[in-house]
UniProtKB/TrEMBL annotation, chain B:
<dbReference type="GO" id="GO:0042597">
    <property type="term" value="C:periplasmic space"/>
</dbReference>
<dbReference type="GO" id="GO:0015833">
    <property type="term" value="P:peptide transport"/>
</dbReference>
<dbReference type="InterPro" id="IPR000914">
    <property type="entry name" value="SBP_5_dom"/>
</dbReference>
<dbReference type="InterPro" id="IPR030678">
    <property type="entry name" value="Peptide/Ni-bd"/>
</dbReference>
<dbReference type="GO" id="GO:0043190">
    <property type="term" value="C:ATP-binding cassette (ABC) transporter complex"/>
</dbReference>
<feature type="domain" description="Solute-binding protein family 5">
    <location>
        <begin position="85"/>
        <end position="437"/>
    </location>
</feature>
<protein>
    <submittedName>
        <fullName>ABC-type transporter, extracellular solute-binding protein family 5</fullName>
    </submittedName>
</protein>
<dbReference type="InterPro" id="IPR039424">
    <property type="entry name" value="SBP_5"/>
</dbReference>
<feature type="signal peptide">
    <location>
        <begin position="1"/>
        <end position="29"/>
    </location>
</feature>
<dbReference type="Pfam" id="PF00496">
    <property type="entry name" value="SBP_bac_5"/>
</dbReference>
<dbReference type="GO" id="GO:1904680">
    <property type="term" value="F:peptide transmembrane transporter activity"/>
</dbReference>
<keyword id="KW-0732">Signal</keyword>
Amino acid sequence: MATYLLKTLLKALVVVLGVSLLVFVLTRSIGNPVNTMLPLGASMAERARLTHQLGLDKPLLAQLGDYVVGVAQGNFGESWWQQESALTVALRPLPFTIELSGIAVVISLVFAIPLGILSALKPRSLLDKVASTSSMLGICVPNFWLGLILILIFSNLLHWFPTSGTGGWQYWVLPSVTLAVLPLGRITQIVRTAMLEQLRELYIVTARSKGLPEFWVVTRHALKNAGVQIVTMSGWELGRMIAGYTIAIEAVFGLPGIGSLIVDAIGQQDFPLIQAITFVIAICIVFLNILIDLSYPLFNPRVKFK
Amino acid sequence: MNKRLKSVSIVLLSLVVSTSLLLSGCGSAAPNTPQSTATKKDTIAIAIPSEPSTMDVQFADDGNMRAVTDNVIESLLTLDGKTMKVIPALATEVSRIDNTTWDIKLRPNVTFQNGNPFTADDVVYSIKRIIDPNFKSNIAGFFATFKDAQKIGDLEVHIITTGPDPSMPTRLTLLDILNQKEMLASPDKIKTAVSGTGPYKIASWMKGQRIVLERNDNYWGTKPAIKTVNYRFIEEDATRAAALRNGEIDFATNMLPEYVSTLPQIQTAEGLEFSLVRMNAVSGVMKDQKIRQAASYAINWDAISKSLYQGYASIAPGQVLKPSYFGFNKNLKAYPFDLAKAKQLLAEAGYKGETITFVGEQGRWLKDGEQEQAIAQMLRDAGFKVDVKMLAFSQWLGVLFPQDPTSTPPDMIFTFHSNDIYDADRTYSTYVLTTGSASSYPKTLDAQIIAARTELDTTKRQQEYEAISQTLYDNPAWLNGINIKDIDGMGKDVVYQPREDMRLKVSEMSFK
């Protein structure tokens, strides 16, 4: 277990460093940020002065050196755009994004698991066909469009929920439901496939033949074994959301998440902030993957960490 | 049931199931959205597209920040919202002593929102801070002519300029005055909760959620009607419109023409920006004056305004200046759309179908990509062979403002030009003067532009700009485009006339 953790953390370090390096090089290749920061009409002298002050006239390797030394000390520099520690700015929307994504994944699991199981139990039935078609629809519907349609129906027509912003629980409903639709579709299909696979296994035949009620056969045996795939998929969906997939939802519902922050940071060409955000996201994803790995023994005791 | 019908019914059923799932997910114990039913409304909710990056007005060039800070912090002079005439604010009198010295008399008995008195020290501090190169202000360029500021008395300041600066009064409308004592005591406070002299003070800023302003009851000027201002940040235009229809907000900036018919009330004003297509008058095919004139006749701006902006755009009057800007030439009119004339000029110039590179970008301004495509197509209709290059914004900027001044400019490049100091000098120093950051015009006008920029006699200066604009009309540096109107959406009960300078002043708003 200890060796496994050590190995995984080492791998994670390599991943995070690799991502940081890649982002560093990529940001430097998208043009001079000074042009975005200054008003359009700024003079050549003003542009040259700011370029120098930001250290962007140094050779790339020297800039990289400064960056690595800074990061080693936990210092990502000050955000050029927000004039605050880039790490502070990058961490600010994280709790909100994790909360929203978490709620969305829970919502999708609550519907996807029963739907997937029922489809797997009666493959090719009407229910199965309806479930797979709806989940395909869920995957295909663009979520910004869905969000706007939900606002039209539930805010403008029915006045059940506010259109946008943050506040009490009613503010969470439309964004998290919109966000849940895509993972709902995908997880339903994963549950169905995984359950179909498990239900074909010999241990199910054994369980059934020893007279275990079908409910327990399905939940305690088949579902538990399908758990590895379901957790992996849900974790992947969660990771995707934290990595900025929530952007359209944030824009539509006026929410302060990490997705809009990334897009703004890129738009402003705020290199320190882009670097800090990608670093934070990389850490989150790596951590999430470790958690998923560690959960496997809960479903399958044969899983051993080496 | 045949197979086809069966699959159709499955799709329909699936739709029903997914909608009912959504419905059940929404819960049944739904509350009503907070409806504002108070009889006497004194709180206004305003939606801006995104959250301000900072409250440091001297640092950032950020319209969302300005929508807040223009109500909190004041400048020495200000503009009349209707006439764009410079009027006193924190200064009562501004006069020129000699070519490079300006005397400013300050308004007595003004206090900052935290109780500090407003004095000459605050003005000197504010000027020194913004022109300090180490401060890295993004708007320092507006004050490039400032050399120093000196305190003469408690309520008197001298500003020293590097040379004669006829635009000084306009510059003073952009110079926000900070609270020196507060700045020295807590330098970081300005990023979130600055205290100014304005009619509103920042009560709170919950990052990511809202900014709340409260009326400053010790304000020296007229007491505003509205007591509390609640700013929300909603990026998506359709959501701003939906929130406005729902009464969740009372006021939303930057509405799209498409949503106008669904909104309770709108008001419009011409913006500060004109689209323009800069042409390379120095080298390449477009060097020929006749070819640039042909392009000017080839564009049907009226059609662009009507079809892309539903008429919420006005055509530039033969120059990219508004009548309220200094240097406007009232004798100029937009080139008429005349395809025959364009073709004739092209034939006279001996144009043989050489490829014209047209550089554009997308997503920075309202329907900029569509406007570029329309212009390119109209040029093709006139006989030009146009190659449109759509670049990412930062790349496009690098082409418009090249790092290497000797690089060859493209034949045509599309941009929007905003005149921040409402003065012809801003436009011509940037796009015409050969040392300007985005110039591709021969030296011929350099002497005139430099003379006008330092001319202190306003009548003479006006004539000089009129002459420059006339030359640029006859021998075009760019295609004069359109000015897209800014549309503010409002609740039925809101009374507000958007200002010509685009500043959002809550003190000028009220409820019916």
